[in-house]
Amino acid sequence: MKKEISIIGTGKMAFALIDGLKNSFDIEVVGRDEEKLENLKIAGFKTTNLKDFNSLNKIVILAVKPYAIEDISKYFKNEVDILISVLAGVTIERLKKYIKAKSYLRAMPNLSAIYQKSMTTLTGDEKVKIESIKIFENIGEVLWATSEKELDIATAIAGSGPAFLALVAESLMDGGVKCGLSRQNSKKLVEGLFDGFSPLLKNRHPALLKDEVMSPAGTTAEGIAALEEKGIRDAFIKAVQKAFEKTQK
User: Fold this and answer.
1) SS3 34
2) What is the pLDDT of residues 188-229, one digit of tens each?
């Protein structure tokens, strides 16, 4: 018999987790949007309106907007078994203020959860470390962070990262179109590039990988020089820094 997990929320991240975990767990989707709940019910999921939610001894993944924590908390009338929050910047101390649970965890998955390819960072109560890692291994790779600060930094990289990489992908596509490729062919090339890059990155340090591709006075060297001229490294470093600083506010 599959273990049940209650997912609170019906936004993009909640849907990614619902799709990513549905084959490994019985999912209870809890929310306030009746139309979304009805569509999920038709799709075969157990759904519960938040006002009718019984949190007693449940494993709960909280996937709502961070500002909603206080409002959502009033619906938790019983003690949760394990509370897993994916709310960026909301500390465990703050979670304890609003929701009673036996164990508290913070998690930062990303939208790739829908394809079981999320890079998820976890931190919190050590006594449920193994169980929580096993849950999120169903949607991809997992990193256990030793502190909430580490998780917040991870949020800036793996949480916000898909948006940063989307900008890179779109820019490469636009570059292909500018040079004369059709949009369709440019998109296909970039898709293939990203698909093949992951195993390269796992087996080579990025600096060594760059050196392998960049031959003397070649096309890659010309392109790298153009990127460096525009401060590409500084821009990405600052993007991570700014995203991390936002989690601290």
Assistant:
1) helix
2) 999 999 999 999 999 999 999 999 999 999 999 999 999 999
Does residue 80 contact residue 105 with C-beta atoms inside 8 Å? no
d(CA 230, CA 225): 9
Phi, psi angles (nearest 5°) of residue 165: -70, -30
Name the nearest CA neighbour of 77 among 101, 95, 61.
101
- C-alpha 157/C-alpha 247 separation (Å) is 12
Count the neighbouring beta carbons within 10 Å of the beta carbon of residue 163: 12
User: What are the φ/ψ torsions at residue 18 (nearest 5 degrees)?
Assistant: -60, -50
Q: What is the DSSP letter of 2?
A: P
CA distance 50 to 38: 13
Burial class (CB in 10 A: 0-12, 13-18, 19+), 224: middle
**Structure token pair of residue 124:** 């919190």
Largest Cα span, the chain: 67
